[in-house]
Every structure is written in C-alpha cells, then in structure tokens.
Amino acid sequence: MKTRTIQEGGTRALVPPVPDDGQLSISSASVFYNPEMELNRDLSVASIAAFSQIMSSRRHLEMSEITYVDALSASGIRGLRIAKEVGLNVTLNDWSEEAYTLIKENAAINDLTDKVRICLGNANALLHKERYNIVDIDPFGSPTTYLDAASSSVINMLAVTATDTAPLCGAHLNSGIRKYSAVPLNVEYHSEMGLRIMLGMIARDLARHEKAMHPMFCHATRHYVRAYLEVKKGANKTDKCLKDLGFIAHCTKCTARSVHYGMAVHIPEKCELCGEETSIAGPLWLGPLHNREFCDSVLVQLTNRELGKKEYAVKIVELCRNELDIPTFYDQHLLTKKLGISAMPMEELLKELTGDGFKASRTHFSGTSFKTNAGLKEILDILRRFR
Ligand SMILES: C[S@@+](CC[C@H](N)C(=O)[O-])C[C@H]1O[C@@H](n2cnc3c(N)ncnc32)[C@H](O)[C@@H]1O
C-alpha cells in the first residue's frame, strides 16, 4: 500500500496518501485516516491521560497497569498515541487485514512493538470476550452497533464518537429513530440534541449491564459528537443514572421548551407560553455533560503537551468547563431576528441575565448562543430592553 508519514503529538504514523483526484475520498482509502480528527485525538490523549492519572492516584496503579482498547483502530493512530503519549497498556483492533498490517508497521516505527497488543477481528467479539478499564469506540458514522459489547467490556471509562450527525440531530428523522431508538428534533440546538440523543442511547445500553454513566467531558465539534463517560457498576447506581433520561417538549412556533425527567412522565402537548402544539424529543440524556474538576485536569494535560490542535482544544474544554448544566440553549441571533432588533454583545446579555437573578453562560455548541435558566419570556424582555 502507498503511504505517507504523518506526525500527531509525539507519535508518527504511516497513512494512505491524501486523496488528490477528487474521486478517492478519505473513506474509500484502503485504510482510514482523517487528518481533520487530529483535534478529536488531541482531546482524547488529554482526556484519557487526565482520567488515567486520577485512577492511578486513587488506586495506586502504574499507568501501564491501566488497560485501554481502541476497538476500531484503522491506521492505529489513536491507540498508538495513547500507548506512547499516555503510557497505558493498549490493545488495538481492526477487522481489516490491511489495517492490521499497517498498525503493526506503525507500532514498529514508534518502538511500541513489544508494548501494544494488535488484534485482527470483529470489535464486538473482542469486547464481549474481554474487559478493559477504558474502551474507545471511534467508528464510521454511528457507534450504536458496538454499544452493547462496549458496555459489557468497560470497567471505568467509555469514550465514544458518533459522526452521523444528520440522524442524531433530526435532519434524517427516520434514520435517527432506527439507529438511536429515540426521536430527535431538528431545532436551533440540534448539535446539543444530537449529543444528548447519543448519550441517552449509551445510558440505556450500559443499564442492561447494570452500569451507570457519569459524563466527564462531552462535546459536539464540526461533524461529530464525542463523549468521555466514567462508568460505575451496580443496580442502584444504574437506576439513579436512568432518572436523568427524559424528554424535551419544544414549541416550533415560539421556540419555548420544557424539560421532563423520567421515562414514565406526563409531557404537556401545548406550549405553556403561546398555546401551540409542542413537538417531543426523546428519550434523551438530560443530566450534566461535563464534570468541572475533570475539565480542569484535561486543561492541565493540554497545557503540558505539544499538540497540533492545542489552542482549539483548550478553547473547547474551557467553554465546556464554564457551560451551565442546563439542557438546551437559545440562539441570540434567531431570537433578535424574530423580534426585528439587532443582537447585543454576548457578554452584555449574560450580564443582564445574571443581573436579573438568572444563571447564564456561553456554550461550546455555538458562538451566538447562550444557556440560561430564564424562561423565553424573560429572555425576550431583556432583549427588547436593548433594542
Ligand atoms: C473510522 S475508522 C477508525 C478511525 C480511528 N479510530 C482513528 O482515530 O483514526 C473505523 C475502522 O473500524 C473498522 N471496523 C468497522 N467495523 C468493524 C468491526 N465490526 N470490527 C472491527 N473493525 C471494524 C474499519 O475497518 C475502520 O478501519
């Protein structure tokens, strides 16, 4: 196979050449490598390093005693970076013979041949057979067909990517329902909708194995969503975790929304503000998306490392760290357009909201949006005050 050499963080890898004739796409190359996902991998290195360090100090473990599996490895770049830059005990797996051969070559050029285990086989078979402290699922499109096996395998942390944002965010409604057993809505907070629909599915998959999840750091960036979830075993913990599943009732006329926790819950059919019929999204995850202390540890990891996408990665984690734990956000531009007035500087709007006694923050989901516990009526009053 024709290859070129790339470097991400402290790791080198042979990957397929850049598609140049417009006919060959990244996904049609014999082994997959997407340079756009370097940011995702930089964040993975920092997040998994932060989590492993917490584990190692709580349980007096060496980093090399913590097991990590990159179940869908392709070139191996993700798992090899975890082995080389974090020092975990790494297993890499892919069912493609070409990928398997390339992973071996990439392990060799990083002096990792004796330090990592490379498997050729079905990810689901491997994950149903073996247990790992950290399980990483980074597939083409949807992760859902790997979630049962990943839930069975995982002991401490599950890291999951989904790139099928159209089904997740409600743009391809039937596909979203088929894949995620939930109804997404294509609304202005569709990126958050996608993340919460995926998390809802993961919580239900883990629950079948009596495991509960605690989101540590979850983000929606460009064309994908990514979640780092601490996992704990136990029926009581799982029952408690499932209480954070529920539904969102959204009014497509005035954009007011209400949040309803629980799987057996009464959801109002009419908008409390304008009386129009609401659309219902769910079941989805309504609990927190981030753990503040964990985000601080990820920031420390990012700061102390040489990473290609460090600046962007830091910005995402900082925004997530400071984001309010409130489901859904409002897009200021959309609201002011409806009112026929111009938008105000975001900092001023946040100040006005907090000055009126509400909580308010920016959100990593969108630069023109904010999160608040104020209702739509109060938000509109503030915007009108500044017309
Ligand atoms: C999106 S790529 C992985 C990208 C990689 N994680 C990275 O960061 O560059 C998905 C890989 O999963 C492999 N794959 C798909 N289904 C699989 C399965 N059931 N078992 C094992 N490998 C699988 C494909 O061959 C492909 O190499």
From TrEMBL:
Its EC number is 2.1.1.216. Keywords: Metal-binding, Methyltransferase, RNA-binding, S-adenosyl-L-methionine, Transferase, tRNA processing, tRNA-binding, Zinc. Zn(2+) binds at C251, C254, C271, C274. It catalyses: guanosine(26) in tRNA + 2 S-adenosyl-L-methionine = N(2)-dimethylguanosine(26) in tRNA + 2 S-adenosyl-L-homocysteine + 2 H(+). It is an enzyme of class 2 (transferase). InterPro entries: SAM-dependent_MTases_sf, Trm1, TRM1_arc_bac, tRNA_met_Trm1_C. GO terms for biological process: tRNA N2-guanine methylation. S-adenosyl-L-methionine binds at R41, R78, D94, A123. Dimethylates a single guanine residue at position 26 of a number of tRNAs using S-adenosyl-L-methionine as donor of the methyl groups. Belongs to the class I-like SAM-binding methyltransferase superfamily. Trm1 family. This is tRNA (guanine(26)-N(2))-dimethyltransferase. It comes from Methanomethylovorans hollandica (strain DSM 15978 / NBRC 107637 / DMS1). The gene is trm1.
